[in-house]
Every structure is written in structure tokens, then in C-alpha cells.
């Protein structure tokens, strides 16, 4: 179908996806220990209004379970996300609150819409579980990449263009997604893209300097030896931004190295990794060779080797250590780039790695064209200040034949979450904020939804 600006999308993906899971709809993700046994549909007893007819299980993870459902009142398929035992973990509860608050303030075709919020018993003051009714996608990039189909260059470019357009919108709204990966990119049969799962997202328009736990990286001793002892904690500040975000394969170097004041460049790195992976969908790449660009097995200090978790020098020599996997492709950073790191212990740790040029992205991704490699080189630079922005990426020659700037939305204002200005909330305080947020969202939808219909 034509896009907004009149430039034709490639032929719909329907034919290519027809053999994927019964026609393209996302199906249950297999995850040991999280999904009910075959034939036992626990989700069918969810306390939802009668308008929602649950059809199938789409997936399950740490923070909830997602089912496909028919909204009989609207005549459309939706995704219903059940989040149980919300207040068992107050940190997790605040993440759910952020997701609800952020999604309710975003309005872009590349972000799933929240259609409804269901509180069982219509009791916001005492609820323990929550149901989010959201826009659904046909499949996700991870599922597509695991399917034995090939895409044309036009298909890959359109999907990538949609992903970049959505990311640009998020960044103009002051949102860092912080967990971009193929499974969080929904793709429809017409190549439309939606960025999902905002459980780790943060609104950072008004953030102050984040706290980083010192001493997690190595430091240099009095005689130049690399050691792993604590170097003391920084002065307390008013707000924290956790560094343990983004899945390892898509985690930017500054997150790996626990840098303070990281920026939206962490999302650019993740999207670069995703696009590199997408090029493996092109003709000439074997199914068995598809996978992450940087498939590290450990990631010191956040995801270290269990045998020697505090030994930075040991990790710098590990061939499956995440930074080594990155350096094998991109090469080790220059002295000038290392000097950009704001932590002395991080600089010391980087200098532990054996210097190398790296094989280069073209050799690593032989099926990628010259323009694709050039843009990836701009997105996957070690220094966040050296990386291009989403706006820059959209203006790259790679996308010149399909880009339509008039279709790229800009957020009218930065998203700000007042409750995030307070670092520690009690359960009752979180309940109060949840109740206010739910009332605000439902009021904005001009409806009230209860478990009784």
C-alpha cells in the first residue's frame, strides 16, 4: 500500500509470512518454566470484561503474560497484557507504572496504542494485578529472523525506516527506550513497525545526574597492577538511572562500562545492532548463520563470568566477553576515544584489552551493501558523542529513495513523569500514583473499564 507521502511500500509481507506460525500472527514464545502446559489455558479465566474474548497465548516474561484477544465491541484483535502481583517488588511495580504512564502520553504510528486498562473489581486502591489492552502486531523481528524466509532489500529498508522513525519520535519526546532488541520490534504484513515493551523506558527530559555504583570495574593499583577492589561510592545525588538495561547483545559500550549521564545514543547503538541483524534476512545469508552482530557470552561487570565475577583482567582476555566480541569487529578504541570515558576505572579496564583493528562490518556482514555498511559504521561508534542521531540516520543516502519527512512525527512536548522525581516510594504511595494514573488514562479515553464489563 502507498505510504503517506505517496512512495510505494514494497509488496506486502503476507506471502512471505504465510508459512510463519499459521499466517504471521505472533504465537506463544517458548520459555521454560513460565508458560502453562499444553492444553491448560489458565489465561482463559482472566477476570476481563465480556467484550474481550481471549484467543491464544502470545508470550510470557518476567513482568507479565500477553494474550491475543478479540475486542467484540470494536471488532478488532488486541493484545492483553496481564501483570500479576504488581506490588510484590516495588522496583518492578514502578517500572510497570512508567510503562503505563509513558505509553499513555505517546501518540505515534510506531508505538502501540493503549486501548484500555482493566483493574479487577474496579478497585484502584487495593488491586494486585492489572490488564493492559493494547494494539497488536502481526509478528516481531525475532520471530521473522528465526523463520526460513528471505527478504528483499526493499523490505529490510522499509522495516528499518519505520524503526528509525519511531525512535526519532521517542527521542523528541525525551524517552530512552533502553531495551531495544528484535523481539521488541513488531512488524505487520504491510511492513509497518511498532516499538513495544516500554518496561525499562525512562522519561529523561528533566533528569538529574544519575548514580553509578563505583568500584564495579577494575582500577589501577599503586604499582600499575589491575585490581578489582572498591574505590569508594560517589556523593549521593537526587536521582538514579540504572545501568543494567538493554539485553547484552544490544548493550552500548557506555552501558557496559557504567558511564554516568548516558544519552539517547544507547538506543542508536541498539538499533544499529538490530539493523545489522536484519541484513542477514537478505538473499545469500544462511538461516543457520543468522544471529546477533555481537553475541557475547559474558558482559563484565553487570553479567560477569560466574567463576571469576570480580576479575576485570580475566574478562578482558575472554574471547566471548561482550567488549571483545565488539572489538573483534570494530577494533579497539583509540586513545582519544578512551579519554572520553568519564570514569578512570573504565579507562583502565579498556586498556586491558589487546589492541586490534577488527575485521570490519563489511567482512562481518558480506550481504550488506555499501550504504548499509556506511550507516552502520556511523551508528556503531564506540564513543556516544561520535554516533549519529536518529535524525541523522534518517537522512542517510541508504533511505533517500523511500524517506518521507512529512510522515515522521515529532512529539509536541517532552514527556515528564512527576512521580519519578521521588526516588523511593512506599507501596501505598505507589498505589496512590497508580490509581491517579489509571484514572487519568481512562479519562483521556473517555471511558471507564471494569472487570465486570
UniProtKB/TrEMBL annotation:
Enzyme Commission (EC) number: 2.7.11.24
Sequence positions that bind ATP: 81
Alphabetic keyword roster: ATP-binding, Kinase, Magnesium, Nucleotide-binding, Serine/threonine-protein kinase, Transferase
SMART domains xrefs: S_TKc
Reaction catalysed by this enzyme: L-threonyl-[protein] + ATP = O-phospho-L-threonyl-[protein] + ADP + H(+)
Cofactors, names only: Mg(2+)
Entries under SUPFAM superfamilies matching the protein: Protein kinase-like (PK-like) (SSF56112)
Source organism, top-level taxon: Eukaryota
Activity: how regulated: Activated by threonine and tyrosine phosphorylation.
UniProt region (Disordered), positions on chain: 1-34
The keyword Lyase appears for this protein: no
Enzyme class, first EC level, given as a word: transferase
Molecular function via GO: ATP binding; MAP kinase activity
Domain Protein kinase: 52-399
Biased amino acid composition, Low complexity: 7-17
Annotated family: Belongs to the protein kinase superfamily. Ser/Thr protein kinase family. MAP kinase subfamily.
Protein name: Mitogen-activated protein kinase
Taxon lineage: Eukaryota, Sar, Alveolata, Dinophyceae, Peridiniales
